[in-house]
């Protein structure tokens, strides 16, 4: 019965009670994040094309295209979370420096780090986008956090999650006790629990990567993808499926539902960038969710959650999803780094290439 499903707010309180650690501040912070996600869901569904026009797009702090909805989503999150007294600072993809809590509002014990709109290249084609968030503790005694106060490893996250704005809107969260999915019931205007205790199957025959970067990949990634593409006749002995939505929220959601591997690996396209995705508001929250659901998240060489950040906008390679597939790719990196596997070193058109003829 739909009306018996726990609402997000009720679930959070009961989940904390079960864990024996009720934290009213954290519960109300997550409630404010949820409200922001509802408002962003409404803004995204209103009509993204309304906000497209000459001069509408400007570069953000990362030199990437910032769309009006990126800015609107950022404003919504800041306004929904700054007044409640649970936070002492926020950082997002769209702001170069941490946002101050405006004078007149009390400061709290938590820090919020977020990607207001993930996959925003999908806005103008009416495809799934999302919001990613991560909650950290502020260092004791800090009321005006500096950048350095945010630079905590993913293992320090208190909670993490994403909202997905697709055919239905969803909110998926972890407080370090499993992963739980909620669907926005528009009849009552509330997210209700529809996917308790989500688990990623340990193996799956589906992978996601932007294959247009193939010529820039490192040999272990090339090996993994080529072996998948060889299908039944290749070393994997099975046919694989490929997906690329260009929206990490949508890719991670698919993996939480049916498994698979998502990769945005290190590549040589721009050597000043060790990866495409940002550690603090993309890789870390997703890695926490994926690990909590029984999967794994690595750079190919290191566990993502163990990385000590050096910059709030730092980028990292990301390989996450079904445990066995992540482990396989990590083993391929290790073998290559030990000099034991050089078969995939040759550029694109070698004997084993994806693009070889017959
Ligand atoms: P954002 O829209 O927040 O900048 O993030 C987009 C990210 C991620 O969602 C996706 O996996 C990846 O960038 C897509 O990259 P390509 O454009 O290279 O496909
Ligand atoms: Mn993003
Ligand atoms: Mn974004």
The general outline is globular
Question: Largest beta sheet: what is the strand line-up?
Answer: 3-4-5-6-7-8-9
Class computed from helices, strands and strand pairing: alpha+beta
CATH architecture assignment name of the largest domain: 2-Layer Sandwich
CATH class of the largest domain: Alpha Beta
Spatial separation of the terminal alpha carbons: 56 Å
The count of helical stretches stands at 8
Biggest sheet statistics: 7 strands, mixed
Helix content: 25-40%
What is the gist of this entry?
With 358 residues, the protein is of the alpha+beta class. 29% of the residues lie in helices and 21% in strands.
Report on the architecture of this protein:
- It is a single chain.
- The protein is an alpha+beta fold and 358 residues long.
- The chain folds into two domains: 3-195, Fructose-1,6-Bisphosphatase, subunit A, domain 1 (Fructose-1,6-Bisphosphatase, Chain A, domain 1); 206-352, D-Maltodextrin-Binding Protein, domain 2, CATH 3.40.190.80.
- The chain is 29% helix and 21% strand.
- The chain contains eight helices and 16 strands.
- The protein has helices at residues 8-18, 24-46, 68-81, 147-150, 219-229, 248-258, 279-292, 323-337; strands at 58-59, 65-66, 87-92, 110-118, 129-137, 159-165, 169-174, 179-185, 190-195, 206-208, 241-243, 261-264, 277-278, 296-298, 315-316, 318-321.
- The strands form four sheets. The protein has a seven-stranded mixed sheet with strand order 3-4-5-6-7-8-9, with helices on both faces.
- The N and C termini lie far apart (56 Å).
- The mean pLDDT is 92.
- Bound molecules: 2,5-anhydro-1,6-di-O-phosphono-D-glucitol (AHG) and manganese (II) ion (2 copies).
- 2,5-anhydro-1,6-di-O-phosphono-D-glucitol binds at residues 64, 93, 115, 118-121, 210, 246-248, 264, 276.
């Amino acid at each position: 019965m739909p009306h018996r499903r726990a609402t997000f707010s009720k679930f959070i309180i009961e989940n904390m009670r079960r864990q024996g650690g009720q934290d009213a501040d954290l519960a109300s912070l997550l409630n404010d994040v949820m409200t922001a996600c509802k408002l962003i869901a409404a803004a995204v569904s209103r009509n993204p094309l309304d906000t497209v026009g000459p001069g509408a797009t400007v570069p953000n702090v990362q030199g990437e295209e910032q769309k009006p909805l990126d800015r609107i989503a950022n404003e919504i999150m800041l306004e929904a979370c700054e007044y409640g007294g649970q936070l002492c600072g926020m950082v997002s993809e769209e702001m170069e420096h941490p946002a101050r809590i405006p004078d007149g509002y009390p400061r709290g014990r938590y820090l919020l780090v977020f990607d207001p709109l993930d996959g925003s290249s999908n806005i103008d084609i009416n495809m799934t986008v999302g919001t990613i968030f991560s909650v950290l503790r502020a260092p004791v005694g800090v009321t005006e956090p500096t950048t350095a106060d945010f630079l905590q490893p993913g293992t320090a996250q208190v909670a993490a999650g994403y909202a997905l704005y697709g055919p239905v809107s969803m909110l998926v969260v972890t407080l370090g006790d499993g992963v739980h999915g909620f669907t926005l019931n528009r009849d009552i205007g509330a997210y209700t629990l529809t996917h308790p205790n989500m688990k990623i199957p340990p193996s799956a025959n589906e992978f996601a990567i932007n294959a247009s970067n193939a010529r820039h990949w490192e040999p272990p990634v090339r090996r993994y993808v080529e072996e998948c593409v060889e299908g039944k006749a290749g070393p994997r002995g099975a046919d694989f499926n490929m997906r690329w939505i260009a929206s990490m929220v949508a890719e991670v959601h698919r993996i939480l539902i049916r498994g698979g591997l998502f990769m945005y690996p290190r590549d040589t396209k721009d050597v000043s960038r060790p990866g495409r995705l940002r550690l603090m508001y993309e890789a870390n929250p997703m890695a926490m969710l994926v690990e909590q659901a029984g999967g794994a998240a690595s750079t190919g060489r290191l566990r993502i959650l163990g990385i000590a950040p050096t910059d709030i906008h730092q980028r990292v390679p990301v390989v996450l999803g079904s445990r066995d597939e992540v482990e396989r790719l990590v083993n391929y990196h290790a073998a290559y780094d030990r000099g034991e596997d050089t078969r995939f070193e040759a550029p694109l058109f070698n004997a084993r290439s994806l693009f070889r003829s017959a």
